[in-house]
Amino acid sequence: MPYHQDLGGTRHVFADLRQVMAAASPHRSGDVLAGVAATSAEQRVAARLVLADLPLARFLTEAVVPYEADEVTRLIIDRHDTAAFAPIAHLTVGGFRDWLLANDGAAITAVAAGLTPEMVAAVSKLMRNQDLIAVAAKLRVITRFRGTIGLPGRLSVRLQPNHPTDDPAGIAAAILDGLLLGSGDAVIGINPAGDSVADAHNLLLLLDELRQAYAIPTQSCVLTHVTNTLQLIARGAPVDLCFQSIGGTEGTNRGFGIDLALLAEAQDATLALGRGTLGQDVMYFETGQGSALSAGAHHGVDQQTLEARAHGVARAFRPLLVNSVVGFIGPEYLYDGKQILRAALEDHCCGKLLGLPMGLDICYTNHAEADQNDMDAILTLAGVAGVNFIMGVPGADDIMLNYQSTSFHDALYLRDVLGLKPAPEFEAWLLANGITDAAGRLAASPARLALPGVLGG
């Protein structure tokens, strides 16, 4: 169905909903690379005017990626909750924006199952940055495994102790650094340098030995491919969480070597281990704008809408953690600090609207037009927006993945200026071990934690 809008004597015509969505998106390098971006600021305004007047129900009858050709579209449509959608079914996209700003978190959460990823992507295109922050700040998505993540007034941290050779001593030293600086309550998660199942098994044993030796109320994860995790489970490895990168189309996920059936199999296998003490939210997903274009599977859809569709995949598996690795893919997709900031706020807000426990890897690659000051700004705004967790990387410099992220010190800064605390179970552990004082600040003489079998403990 063609759409059009007249502006200043010019008629702007859009062939279908996919083109409206793409042209309405804020300018970003990935959409230009894909050939779907608005050709002018005027065309972008025209597309937004069209989008604002579209009924939300239109997204249930016009798919941006064909239903017959894509299992992600089928997942989205087949699992749509019409009862949850009913209170907002009469709204346009513009009216939905006003509704989100006017209602509280409970009302928004009540309709989450009735929202499709395309609906939340559409409304985000009409929102200023402050709107994205204001709406997301109302929403709390709480998950549990050995700790409780996402409570109001809390900020969790993934302790990311990556090493270019998976050296156990180097990894253990980074873990010790992070723990003594109050990080690790979201997960202690290692990106392995290689794809060896045996090496991943050894890393899991290291993490589990450390966790049990000091009764740390957290969970561990080696962020290997889901098929490797299934092998690790079969070998009896101490798997807490099952990780996988996911995308917003069937073709993107095929490029990752997965499909929905494989994710369901991995979730069932991980749940069967029953390792959680407070809950059994066992999945950990990472997403990122640009992955579908990178895989040649974007179907002419803008990258932010596809990111929201990746969130739609995550929603089906009740994850403990979801994070957008927002600047990792590079400047071909998000060119500079301004584009990375906008994407971070979009990803966080859209994920929360869909009911996901959203975190952010606030990051950039060294060839992007960005620096650590940009990350400071994104970090602060994400904290105000109520992000569930961020990354804690030694010195903010991941020496294995070769990108810049956020550090343990950055997490301390954000907790301090916004009055945030770690997950309650982890907060109590930090206090009991003399790492923090009763006020939650680092102790003047922090505890010494010896890492068994690694650093002479």
UniProtKB/TrEMBL annotation:
One GO term of the biological process aspect: amino acid metabolic process
List of residues binding adenosylcob(III)alamin: 192, 244, 294, 400
Reaction catalysed by this enzyme: ethanolamine = acetaldehyde + NH4(+)
Keywords: Bacterial microcompartment, Cobalamin, Cobalt, Lyase
Record-stated family: Belongs to the EutB family.
Classification via Gene3D superfamilies: Aldolase class I, ethanolamine ammonia-lyase heavy chain domain like, lyase
Name of the protein: Ethanolamine ammonia-lyase large subunit
Cofactor: adenosylcob(III)alamin
Note describing how the cofactor binds: Binds between the large and small subunits.
Signal peptide annotation: none
EC identifiers of the protein: 4.3.1.7
Superkingdom to which the source organism belongs: Bacteria
An example molecular function term from Gene Ontology annotations: cobalamin binding
Subcellular location, record wording: Bacterial microcompartment
Pathway(s) served: Amine and polyamine degradation; ethanolamine degradation
GO cellular component, as recorded: cytosol; ethanolamine ammonia-lyase complex; ethanolamine degradation polyhedral organelle
Organism: Sandarakinorhabdus cyanobacteriorum
Subcellular location, principal: other
Keyword Lyase appears in the UniProt entry: yes
Subunit and partners: The basic unit is a heterodimer which dimerizes to form tetramers. The heterotetramers trimerize; 6 large subunits form a core ring with 6 small subunits projecting outwards.
Function: Catalyzes the deamination of various vicinal amino-alcohols to oxo compounds. Allows this organism to utilize ethanolamine as the sole source of nitrogen and carbon in the presence of vitamin B12.
Underlying gene: eutB
